[in-house]
Amino acid sequence: MITKPKGTYDLLGVDAKISNYINHEIEDFMINYNYEYIRTPVFESTELFHRTVGDGTDIVTKETYDFKDRGDRNITLRPEGTAGVVRSVIENKLYGNKNDPIKLYYNETMYRYERPQSGRFREFTQFGIEVFNSDDALIDAEVISLGYNLLVSLGLDDVVVKINTLGDASSRENYTNALVSYFKPHINDLCEDCQKRIKTNPLRILDCKVDKNSEVLKNAPKISDYISKESKERFNKLKTYLDNLDINYEVDENIVRGLDYYDECVWEYMLDDGIALGGGGRYNSLVENLGGPYLPGIGFALGIERIILKLKEKISDKKLENMIDVYIMSVSDEEKIYALKISQDLRLNNVITEINGNNLSLKSQFKVADTLNAKFLIILKNEDLQKGLITVKDNITKEEVKVDESEIVDYILGNI
Ligand code: HAM
After folding, report:
1. Topology adopted by domain 13-168+228-317
2. CA angle, 241 as apex, 168 and 295 as ends, to 5°?
């Protein structure tokens, strides 16, 4: 038997239902917050991720799926969504005019060669948003609160947003230099990965899972001592906005994020088990660094598999139950013609409808209708149809009525 590749999964059963539920909620949120959908390629030039996510990051050094295509080009399966969106904004000159933020969202598969475990896959799905052309702390608050509100509305009301500021580019550089000077004499006390990170990505040492509780890390310089006055003021403004929106957030100076493109605010959506459901931040230099004009940006991505996992523990069975509106029962050829036509009329009127698609006996159809939790049964009978009537049974109260054939859709619409 050929089996699925390690780190992948088939979306089916309850997980598929929860995934559909999440996607509906996302679509509603995107309409209300006025975001536009964007889809970029699953694979991009390898160089794109080196120049955005960063050469020294774990993602680029250890986790990308890289290959040469048949034309000898260096190609990488996207490990995240921001790089492709930024490339597309530049390539398609989606710069907007001076006054409009450009608000985009995606909900796509990403690829990272990670060690598979609960909530960690090699093919996974991110819902992400990216906003360009605004450098206002008000937009920071809108973006952070959008993700928070979405998670709460999905049912994850114990989520906390851990926020931090990396300051502007020069604050970040000063802080990075201070970290390197501090860690160098302690290099032997750090884990193997962090020993390399001193050269490649010193900020990442701060959120190392291995060295987390070591004295060296606890006594490291604090980022807040290196943040410029403007960045501090901006961060205070953001906190005022978040307070006013009732967002459950905490400042956590260890949130530095694993990707190179951030400046100013960064954040992660966490549950108390320490697993990040998502994360994001501002990236005001990224578009320019990739060859575009100065165009500030901000965004986040949520890991859909982790949300499914958490919702599965929480959502009541009721919400996930199969609940269809109508099951239409038919046996004879004439009844089947009616069943098909009525099912079409009902479905086109947003009534969830199922028919006997397997030539079942009447008795078996009753059983199927019960397993589908049908609210109403339409029981087609030749003798009724000759009189222009249709039998409808309320499958909960068990009451039966005969309805005029021409009024069947209205009757169902009026009663479900
Ligand atoms: P990230 O923190 O690398 O950020 O990923 C965001 C989320 O994707 C994580 O918090 C996690 O829920 C999910 N995720 C990451 N790796 C895996 C995996 N192997 N299996 C399952 N879920 C995973 C970014 O990707 C940035 N592009 C976010 C962003 C958008 N920043 C600005 N705009």
Report:
1. BirA Bifunctional Protein; domain 2 (3.30.930)
2. 40
